Structure formats: C-alpha cells, structure tokens
What we know:
Blueprint: E1 12-15, H1 21-24, E2 29-32, H2 36-65, H3 71-94, H4 101-125, H5 131-139, H6 141-151, H7 159-179
Antiparallel strand pairs: 1-2
Helix pairs in contact: 2-5, 3-4, 6-7
Amino acid sequence: TTAPAPETATGAVSMSGPGGPSASGGTSATVPRPRPAADARRLAEAGAVGVMLVWAANFVIVKSAIASAPPIGFAFVRFLLAGLVLLAILRWREGSIGLPRAAIVPVALLGGLGFGLYQVLWSTGLTVTTAGTSALIVATTPIWTALVAVAARTEIAHRARFLGAAVGFAGVALVVAARGLYLSSSGLGDL
C-alpha cells in the first residue's frame, strides 16, 4: 500500500509514482488543492446570486398570485408555510426552537411589523401597481433606512450620507421619468 501524498506548505499535494520519484527516476507533479476559503467564497457568491434571482422573481410571482387570491390570504399562507419550513430546519440543525423569555415580545413585535404588516401592505399595494414599480419602491428602502437612522440619531449625519441618498433618489426619478408617472382616477396606484 502507498501512503497518502504529503501536503506541501502551499496547500498543494505532491503526486508521484508508486515507488516515489527516486525509485523509478520519474518526475513528480504538484497539484493545487482547493482551499477551504476559496470554496466558502464561491459558495457565498453562488448564494448571493441565488438570493438575487429569488428576490427579483418575488415581485412577478406575487403579482401573478394575487390576481387569483386575496393579497392578505396569500401573504398569510405564504409566510405560514415558510415559517413552518424554517422552524423544521431550525429544529433539525439546532435541536431547539426556544427563545429566551425576554426575547419573545421583541421578536413577536418585529415579526409582526417586518413580515406581518409589511407583507400585507406590500401585497395589497401590488394590486394597484406593476411589479416593476413595486420593485423600484422597495429598492429605495436602504435610502429611507439611512435617512431614518440619521433622524433617530443612531447614525451620524454627514454630507456623504445625504449625497448618497440624493443620488439614489435621482436614480429612482430617472427610471420613473423614463416610464412616465401617472395616477389612476382614484388616486391609488398607477393602474
């Protein structure tokens, strides 16, 4: 039997014949071994691309779904199923789904606002606008978050932050202006 090839300092594996390089006068080759950090980076990048694809498809899929189901009912079923799947994954990976008592109320409030109220309002609003307009509005969330953080004094107000917000809003304005901005006769939405 032969021993496994020794690992070199660079993370490469030395490959040689069964008798070693000196036994037969053969040559050895060094084959680079994939580094765990590089693998983790590729996995993270693939995950980021996957999230972007799912996020982008979300607007179109929900817009299509609410054409045949009430938006509030659709949001409820969607997040009920997602929550059950994630709880099962959490239980499988962590062995427990418990929260410390002090965290139950804050987590329930944040969940109610972030998933409950937001999703109900968003899917209801999507009934009176296009998926593209909805995606554009949602894309301004980081701008609003930065401005609210400055107003709440959790972030420092400085020119670069306001310049970034102005550039972000200018981009939104350019997209909206290119498509034309109009309201329906009821004043709700653009459909």
